[in-house]
């Protein structure tokens, strides 16, 4: 089932057309959005999260074409989003913050306490649920961000640079969580770390200058490289080769 469908999608960031003509068909699974700084990853994620309205093109999420206020409301209830810069109230406890976000997503009140408990457990913060956010490490706050994104068991989960600030053990736990979620969720993860893609993603979307340079499996990305390319492993060499070819 196609969860995210885009044709000729163009999205502005300020004056620049940061996403400049992208076609997408994403099903359940983990999709890594990879690309150098400024490629347009965050702008694409913001458009999928319905934060930015496309300048032109078609965008359908969960079978609903985005446009009317009603369509946005319907879709927002079924997506989870961790922005790159995620704002929070330091005085909230972990539980209060995730509850508040569940409420903003218009979850039914009776479902909220159980859903919050599950989300906080899944990110490994069960024993910190009553601690204030101001007392947590940066990596733990990132995990709270992931908890708020998954609390409504979204059908599309959008995570912008979710592994920034996570230590190696946290990264491994996070990848396991993605794998678990991917069975019945379309997970889109933006990163500039090729290793995140290698370890956790089924499909890769390589972006540069607002366009998609490559879309396919991690093995196909690896196959695009040659031994003369820059990179420590086949995936990095594939990544460099595709960016080099596009620059020529
Ligand atoms: N608010 C803005 N005003 C003007 N230009 C912007 C704005 N936001 C982004 N841009 C520009 O749009 C382009 C794409 O930015 P975007 O943040 O989507 O890229 P990115 O791939 O997420 O980069 P990074 O890996 O550095 O986060 C960049 O050239 C950036 O400078």
Automatic annotation (TrEMBL):
CDD domains: ABC_drug_resistance_like. Signal peptide: none annotated. Residues 2-234 form the ABC transporter domain. Keywords: ATP-binding, Nucleotide-binding, Transport. GO terms for molecular function: ATP binding; ATP hydrolysis activity; hydrolase activity, hydrolyzing O-glycosyl compounds. Belongs to the ABC transporter superfamily. PANTHER family: ABC TRANSPORTER, ATP-BINDING PROTEIN. This is ABC transporter ATP-binding protein. It comes from Actinokineospora globicatena. The lineage of its organism: Bacteria, Bacillati, Actinomycetota, Actinomycetes, Pseudonocardiales.
